[in-house]
Amino acid sequence: MWLLDDVIAAVASAPGPGRRGIVRASGPGVQSVVAGMVPVSDGALHFGRATRFEALLQVDGLSTPLPAAVCVWPDHRSYTGQPTIEIHTIGSPPILNAIVQDLVDRGARVACPGEFTLRAFLAGKIDLVQAEAVLGVIDADSTTQLQQALTQLAGGVSAHMRALREQLLIDLADLEAGLDFVEEDIEFVDREAMTARLNQAVEWLSQLKEHSRARGQTTGRKSVVLAGLPNAGKSTLFNALIGRSAAVVSPVAGTTRDWLIAPIEFDGVPIELVDTAGAEEGTDAISSDAQRARRERLEQADLILWCIAADATAEEHHQDHAVRQTFVARHRELLEVTTKIDLAPERGRGALSVSVAGGVGLNQLRTLLRARLATGGDRGELLSTTLARCTESLDLASEALERAAEFSRSRGGEELVAFELRRGLESLGEIAGVVYTDDLLDRIFSRFCIGK
Predict the structure, then answer these.
(1) What is the C-alpha separation between 253 and 287, in angstroms, rounded?
(2) Domain end (from 108, 126, 144)
(3) Residues tagged in the binding site annotation
(4) How many domains does the chain have?
(5) pTM of the model
(6) How far apart are CA 226 and CA 206, in angstroms?
(7) Which positions make up the binding site for GTP?
């Protein structure tokens, strides 16, 4: 059991020496613990309001006063939801450790791993998905991983899941109200509208699982997939972007029968560039396998680069439009590129018109790709650590809501729909941390470093 009334303290900055270091303390009564270090003349009277002030701390174990900036959050509007104080000073480990020891001598205790974030979770400041993202930020070893962790921490997935739970709770309440008036001709919920909402929820959970699992199987690079009809210039563009001849290029349509992958970087953004077979119906076992592989790569893509040749015929344009629309509906991150612009200059479309032969538009395309991918990551994905914890709950929630939708669609009894809604809500609650056990929290927060 956690002792939430204790004042906890720890070094919150990165281990080792640095220009600046931070000691964080939090808990009821933290002001009185820290106030003993600060002479009244230097601002101890400021502890009653949110502020930042400069002080010369009197720290036991240090022979001279220590210059520091003291940041005060006196109430629940702090990260932990409790009064919190941070001391910003010289990033010397012996000095920071001396501050922590002095705080302990004055009544605080050393924080356990992840205890500050645990208190934020228990105070309702963040949910469990966001708490795991804090660890993801700490452990990130690439810009891509950091961006994914920050996206999860910002609460995009959490907000969607919270809205979903709130709507399901409303539907459940309406259904249960109807059960109390089963003999009356009163409809408390529009079955058709509820069925549509349940179908949307199942689709979102399915996409969340697919995107997260696909991301977990990649190298951490953003996946950019070249797609389009056969002979649209995909392989030529692939070779130009990676700077070498890796893909076989031929004027014969259908030359690419498999997919190729090349790791590259555009101004610090790591990319996994993928060349796929042209979109067409499989005419034999090999081409059918190629089309299946192409679809799999497209489903896992962070961005689809859809190629259309400038010299394409009217029939090819019509076919291209029909095939491309299926991806526009399911994949927001799609860019259309007009290739071979040297063959039909009048068909160019601004910045996304390129000619590998003439060296036209490639730098603009690289710049645009970098800009799109550097701000990406909003599809709704979970960190691998969160997905590992939530996989079973996601599956159970999807299954329960799918059954609820089926019962609702077939005009089944309210009690059947309500039963499945309760099961779905319980599983979603486990993901967000509305439903949890002490063992689960211990397992999650014990992986944190002390001070976070």
Answers:
(1) 12
(2) 126
(3) 24, 86, 125, 231-236, 250-256, 275-278, 452
(4) 3
(5) 0.65
(6) 25
(7) 231-236, 250-256, 275-278
